[in-house]
Write a structure and sequence with these properties.
binds D-mannonic acid; 408 residues; globular; three-stranded antiparallel β-sheet; 2 domains; Enolase-like, domain 1; 13 helices; binds magnesium ion; TIM Barrel
């Protein structure tokens, strides 16, 4: 099964996606996701200019060897662009191998370890009423676990808080602004730390003790501030507190850990197992948040999650809309096969994205399943993709009241 063609497709149905298409001499086609939100074209170039020429003529069955070849031969290891490009190749090769075997990919990873994958959805609101409505809408859609983000009095624009249904179609909420410049938001840590525990107190008293609740801090706190928030949230029994400090300093989590029993999740901006070395070995976290798409694909994620399993640390694979349905399907197959599955993020894609990426995964009663088609179960419709050309888009960023750029 030799690779005869490799092509990079950039399309922007609801947002930008970078997809690798591999074709073999058996006539099979495999798909891989290399989308890096706000920096998409760098991965497209890395693939087209530097990886595609190396793939032609290679045996598509040699997944591990291809991974090691791309990782080690480049000399320049790690980094989001490199690892997203390697992920695109790796996932496309797994798609091909599973199609050649005539099996859904999870079968090649050891078979199903469970019947379905508990997913969490994103509820948010500018005030309590909007937030409660959003939580109810998610419960009606079947979600059994909910991430809670709200506006904060004293802060004008908080990332992750969408306009209510009616003002903005829920499925079309996209955090990256399609514009030539990133949008500026503001930030006030003391206002945030005062407000968030009150929000969770209100949500618990309205929705009861059972509902798993999650919260994303988006890397905005110092270790001692994160420790305080974790402590203040303990009465509300969170499923996790995500990305509480900037991700570069693994030791920051040690201080947080010493002060709170609120479970910790981190890693959506990580690229390799090395970013987790201390966090996992010293048991400073509870959930691994990496995306298959940003961490070198299934080959690398499997090893990372097996390492985490030795320390009772579970998966919480990143699944925002900037992961394409191809990257999402890769996550679902891996989730189904591993023993230490924790939860899967599921932020539904818009209609245009679903038109470009034909999918077989299902969401029923709060549980995702990758489906039973051979391979990943996602096929890109190239005619549909061609209708949506690339448009520059940037994530917002934030500044303190005095104008200082603050941590994401
Ligand atoms: C978020 C993401 O899903 C999450 O947990 O942190 O929305 C994240 O901001 C984006 O994926 C960035 O591209
Ligand atoms: Mg996050």
């Amino acid at each position: 099964m030799n690779i005869t063609a490799a092509e990079v497709i950039v399309t922007s149905p609801d947002r930008n996606f970078v997809t690798l298409k591999l074709t073999t001499d058996d006539g099979l086609v495999g798909w891989g996701d290399g989308t890096l939100n706000g920096r998409e074209l760098s991965v497209a170039s890395y693939l087209t200019d530097h990886v595609v020429p190396l793939l032609l003529g290679r045996d598509a069955h040699r997944i591990e060897d291809t991974w090691q070849f791309l990782y080690r031969s480049a000399y320049w290891r790690r980094g989001p662009v490199t690892m997203a490009a390697i992920a695109a190749v790796d996932v496309a090769l797994w798609d091909l191998k599973a199609k050649a075997a005539g099996m859904p990919l999870y079968q090649l990873l050891g078979g199903a370890s469970r019947n379905g994958l508990m997913a969490y959805g994103h509820a948010s609101g500018r005030d309590e009423a909007e937030l409660f409505d959003s939580i109810r809408r998610h419960l009606d859609q079947g979600f059994r676990s909910i991430r809670v983000q709200t506006s904060v009095p004293g802060i004008d624009a908080v990332y992750g808080v969408r306009a209510p249904a009616g003002e903005e179609p829920e499925h079309h909420y996209e955090p990256a602004l399609r514009a030539a410049q990133p949008m500026e938001e503001d930030w006030d840590t003391r206002a945030y730390l005062r407000h968030i525990p009150r929000v969770f107190e209100a949500v618990r008293s309205e929705f009861g003790p059972e509902l798993p609740l999650l919260h994303d801090v988006h890397h905005r706190l110092t270790p001692i501030q994160a420790a305080r928030l974790g402590k203040d949230l303990e009465p509300y029994d969170l499923f996790w507190m995500e990305d509480c400090t900037p991700a570069e300093n693994q030791d920051a989590l040690r201080l947080v850990r010493q002060h709170t029993t609120t479970p910790l999740a981190i890693g959506e901006v990580f690229n390799t197992v090395w970013d987790y070395q201390t966090l996992i070995k010293d048991q400073l976290i509870d959930y691994v948040r990496s995306a298959v798409t940003h961490t070198g694909g299934i080959t690398a994620m499997r090893k990372l999650l097996d390492y985490a399993a030795q320390y009772q640390i579970k998966s919480g694979i990143h699944g925002p809309t900037d992961i394409s349905p191809v990257g999402m399907a890769a996550a679902l197959h891996l989730d189904l096969a591993i023993h230490n599955f924790g939860i899967q993020e599921y932020m539904q894609h818009g209609d245009a994205t679903n038109e470009v990426f034909r999918q077989t995964f299902s969401f029923e009663n709060g549980y995702l399943h990758p489906g039973h088609q051979p391979g990943l179960g996602v096929e890109l419709d190239e005619d549909a993709a061609a209708k949506f050309p690339y448009r520059p888009a940037y994530l917002p960023y934030n500044r303190l009241k005095d104008g200082t750029v603050h941590d994401w």
